[in-house]
Amino acid sequence: MSQQPPRTDTVRPLRANTVEHWDIEVDVVVAGYGIAGVCAAIEAARAGANVLILERTGGWGGAAALAGGFIYLGGGTGLQRALGFDDTPENMATFLTAALGPGVDQAKIEDYCAGSVEHYEWLVACGVPFKAEFWGEPGWEPPHDEGLMYSGGENAAPFLDLAKPAPRGHVPQFAEKKIGRRSGGYMLMKPLAETAAGLGIAVEYDTRIRRLIVDDDDRVVGVLASTYGKPVAVRAARGVVLATGSFAYDTEMIARYTPKLSGRPGAAIEEHDGIGIRLAQALGAELAHMDASEVAVFGDPQLMARGILVNGRGQRFVTEDTYPGRIGQAVLLHQDNEAFLIIDEKSLEQALDTVTATPFFRFPPTWVAETVAELEAEMGLPAQALQTTIAAYNQHAEHGADPLLGKKPEWVRPLTGALACYDLRGFTAGFTLGGVRTDLDSRVLHVSGEPIAGLFAAGRCTSGLCAGGYVSGASLGDGSFYGRRAGKSAATG
Ligand SMILES: Cc1cc2nc3c(=O)[nH]c(=O)nc-3n(C[C@H](O)[C@H](O)[C@H](O)COP(=O)(O)OP(=O)(O)OC[C@H]3O[C@@H](n4cnc5c(N)ncnc54)[C@H](O)[C@@H]3O)c2cc1C
């Protein structure tokens, strides 16, 4: 480097003609060794490029290795077929367009669905194991090592009648999972990291990307990173791939773009500080869906399906047997982060007898009451607010129906006798889904609509499939799928 080392405390691009010495020279630099990064590195290496991964922490994995491991795949994957589920790319696209909208990138949805079967086979060929067993119960994840589950509300209202329901949450097999710490996502990352090692891909750990380096034509030709406080200039002859994750841990960006997540726990890792987005923005990149977020609610799906959820006014607002992430979004984004779960004694006992992957969501109820009127008073609701809701629910439940929200008959039963109520106000966490806008080749798009030469991105620093809604598996899904594209595109210029 020059006598005066370049600043690492700004996201402004650095001019290549000011770099006196390149510390490392490769064809493709991948920033971030999570799911998008590993897939990009593998495909870039297979396309003949000399690849270097820069990773800020001391090991591979990122949020992906902590994740439950759902990868949203369909259209007739080998696993779906082995378990007797019919699906087509068109059916999958119809569902995703409705569930991930409004405002999805339609070309991306169709491209992803069309390539989904091949992507599943690619993962399997890289050594990702999937057990041919289906888990059909409500839950956040399969409790054991089952490989396939509904993970987006495909088999619940309002999607049930829109597209033929098919389970698409593919989970890598992992018998010793510890939810939230080392789960199915670890068994996605491990074989992929081994594949990358087998290809001879170089990695620099404890090395953090700080700035992009551009030539006189504004083409990205390298990155300025830092390791243990020392700047490192890395030249990338063919391209740079940003795969540094979301902005879930940047409080200012959260306040600016997704304020409802402010103060909520982030379902991510602290390294998700939005750096990839800001570096690309500083070069004029377009952003998309910066307000979109995944939201988890800390409720047990087996209890929610059997009970009813009401808001702070005692009214039902969401189909309780749907994907719990859809419930989380409804609570945080549309009900002021307020929800109460009400269930009767018989259904509660039934629910507690079921197997769950998330036993920590089974805690004692906040209130127990003999009558609805008593519970209503305990909850501090105006007289009749809850009584009216439960009377209407029970009236139709007598006939196994839920004409208000369309909960499936198998979960509908009148609430009778003693009632338990869980106060779920403020019980949400989430991560961000917006980021730089990319095309189908994972090229980062300038606000003019043109690609920014030499710059590619994938994973949660990009706006992927999700525009507003979410399904479990969309992040590892689009991160791996468009990570591959980013690697291929970067390697081929
Ligand atoms: C508990 C939990 C469960 C989840 N379950 C699921 C699930 O089942 N299915 C699903 O689809 N999603 C799930 N997610 C979300 C999913 O894990 C992430 O959205 C996904 O990993 C994002 O992929 P990525 O490649 O963008 O980021 P990551 O996989 O996190 O990789 C980003 C990498 O970049 C590194 N990095 C950051 N900044 C820099 C820098 N300046 N320089 C160099 N490296 C840097 C990070 O350290 C990290 O290793 C879950 C998340 C959590 C926390």
Could you walk me through the main structural features you see in this protein, from its secondary elements to its overall organization?
- The protein is α/β, with parallel strands linked by helices and 493 residues long.
- The protein has two domains: 1-298 and 428-493, 3-Layer(bba) Sandwich (FAD/NAD(P)-binding domain), CATH 3.50.50; 300-426, Succinate dehydrogenase/fumarate reductase flavoprotein, catalytic domain (Flavocytochrome C3, Chain A, domain 1), CATH 3.90.700.10.
- Helices cover 28% and strands 19% of the residues.
- It is built from 13 helices and 21 strands.
- It has helices at residues 35-46, 78-82, 89-99, 106-125, 184-198, 251-257, 275-281, 301-306, 324-334, 345-352, 372-378, 385-397, 474-491, and strands at residues 14-15, 24-31, 51-54, 71-72, 134-135, 148-149, 169-170, 202-204, 207-214, 220-227, 230-242, 287-288, 293-297, 308-310, 340-344, 367-369, 419-423, 428-432, 435-436, 443-445, 451-457.
- Strands 1, 2, 3, 8, 9, 10, 11, 20 and 21 form a nine-stranded mixed sheet that branches. The chain has a four-stranded mixed sheet with strand order 4-7-6-5. A four-stranded antiparallel sheet has the order 14-15-17-16.
- Strand 10 and strand 11 form a beta hairpin.
- It starts with 13 loop residues before the first strand and ends with a helix.
- The model has no long low-confidence stretch (mean pLDDT 97).
- Flavin-adenine dinucleotide binds at residues 31-37, 54-57, 62-64, 66-70, 180, 185, 208-209, 243-245, 267-269, 271, 275, 459-461, 472-477, 479.
- Its cofactor is FAD.
- Keywords: FAD, Flavoprotein, Oxidoreductase.
- It comes from Nocardia lasii.
